[in-house]
């Protein structure tokens, strides 16, 4: 469906909306741009052609197989020869496919064989080539593996081939029916191998694995997350859910893993890598192997932390935590694909089955997860979910313990900055206060002075006379005895 | 009826051993893992599980038949109760563990039983009720009679064990194995297979209905 939206993005040309055949009706992208009528015609034609090709290919391969078997009986060297011939044929096969795709791209008509259409649309020629390389490698391996079984191997090959043809015609059926088809096939082949092929029981598993690998590598692109289901919608829902739960800490889930121990955090990283890698595998069994690898790393992490073997009580929460941290792509699609197309005995029993079941539990738990399951109050849970606050702030450690050094440093710096900011503000306010104090002080002094001045008004008295007369001629002249007067005594 | 070394295939039985899936159910800290741990520890005195005892297999030979018990431990915390039915798929036996010194765990074992009852037909699964921790006799909260009464009313196997003292642990597993074998013979091997075929299809369909849809 993402492909569709991609296509929509490219599709801006008005003429593209019309039927490719130019009949005048509108086309539909679901019909490769044809109108319903032309599409039906083209599709029938393409299908016939494809069936023809497949038959020819099957016959040719079988002929060669038989030749190879015959010559392998005669001599070693001959076998090597036929095999290289076979490989040569394989490459021819490959280039034939590629040219078909090229032809398809250059041709104005979009009526290429149906088989090629989705690939070309989906991925473009380069990825398609890679995919077909992988398919070819799978075929080569499969054929080589079957050689060890001689006639039985031939039988298996024939059955598998004809089954793939049948599946090719079932492509329009619902995914459940296709899954049933594959499961029936596994069962029939297993039965036939045991009764007719006389394959010893201990080898059965290996043979079934190879068959599964071969079949599912070929079917993968048609049956993984098919458009007829809502798998993709579910994928997106889970992805969104996990993103919304980004704030969940190991403590909330009671995860018995201490990521401060370098070895443990290393295991956690490996486990996350494994679970993410699952999406890149094509064969259900390889996907299961990724889950198992991931689980082993989790057990290791728990064991290092707790110093004792982990139990399921420890394992499930940790797996949930890993899924939340890793947010593996297309989780639901992968689970559905494995459930539909893996040999069911492997899912219900065996170690792989155990870990797969745990993963299903983890996903189911994440979907249902609520405040109670994290030991939080409903209000806190709602607040965290809405992204208003993050619980991490309230903890002593404000960053996730596993965050990279740069991030840690950044948080530290931010902390420092905010502290500095605080101090600066304090300083500013203190300074302001000081200023105010100073102003107040001067004002106070001024007021005090004023008061005093008012209380004791300045009395400007006229300068006192005596003082003023100091220098005058008649200083205290009154008090002084009168100047002696000359007196006449004889007189 | 001796336990056979786990990694060597029993020589006596030329055919593939019967494979049975056994789920361990019970609250956390009732000793599910310890029981499992004790079983393997008993058998392999030196070789302890390298990683954990959440999943392991135990080979047994009982009355001349080779058996392979696949023991699935489950998370016992209350919060995982709602998803645990996923473990039941394809199980042949269930071991319901409770702690005799914890009444609550006994009630939870009863809840597990209800859960099993919903998923399975009565004859479809062998269930054993195990009262663990008889070493805590002093603080016993669930009497032997209570346990027995419940087991009898639901037609379950019953045993009291002590994983710590290794009391009746192997016996519990052997009781399960014997019952499994008895049913197997009763059905003439019709209902179950030794290796993939026969009921593949049924399980595949059943799986489709139940699996991961919720």
From TrEMBL, chain A:
GO terms for biological process: dendritic transport; endosomal transport; Kit signaling pathway; mast cell degranulation; mast cell migration; negative regulation of inflammatory response; negative regulation of interleukin-6 production; negative regulation of Kit signaling pathway. Residues 232-375 form the VPS9 domain. Residues 13-47 form the A20-type domain. One of its GO terms (cellular component) is cytosol. Residues 106-133, 459-491 are annotated as: Disordered. Keywords: Metal-binding, Zinc, Zinc-finger. SMART domains: VPS9 (SM00167), ZnF_A20 (SM00259). InterPro entries: DUF5601, VPS9, Vps9-like, VPS9_dom_sf, Znf_A20. It comes from the Eukaryota. This is Rab5 GDP/GTP exchange factor isoform X1. It comes from Phascolarctos cinereus (Koala).
TrEMBL record, chain B:
Keywords: Cell projection, Endosome, GTP-binding, Hydrolase, Lipoprotein, Magnesium, Membrane, Metal-binding, Nucleotide-binding, Phosphoprotein, Prenylation, Protein transport, Transport. Residues 185-206 are annotated as: Disordered. Pfam families: Ras. InterPro entries: P-loop_NTPase (IPR027417), Rab_GTPases_membrane_traffic (IPR050209), Small_GTP-bd (IPR005225), Small_GTPase (IPR001806). It is an enzyme of class 3 (hydrolase). It is a lipid-anchor. It is found in: Cell projection, Dendrite; Melanosome; Recycling endosome membrane. The keyword S-adenosyl-L-methionine does not apply. One of its GO terms (biological process) is plasma membrane bounded cell projection assembly. GO terms for molecular function: G protein activity; GTP binding; metal ion binding. Gene3D superfamilies: P-loop containing nucleotide triphosphate hydrolases. The keyword Electron transport does not apply. It comes from the Eukaryota. GO terms for cellular component: dendrite; melanosome; recycling endosome membrane. Its EC number is 3.6.5.2. It catalyses: GTP + H2O = GDP + phosphate + H(+). Its cofactor is Mg(2+). Belongs to the small GTPase superfamily. Rab family. NCBIfam families: small_GTP. This is Ras-related protein Rab-17. It comes from Phascolarctos cinereus (Koala).
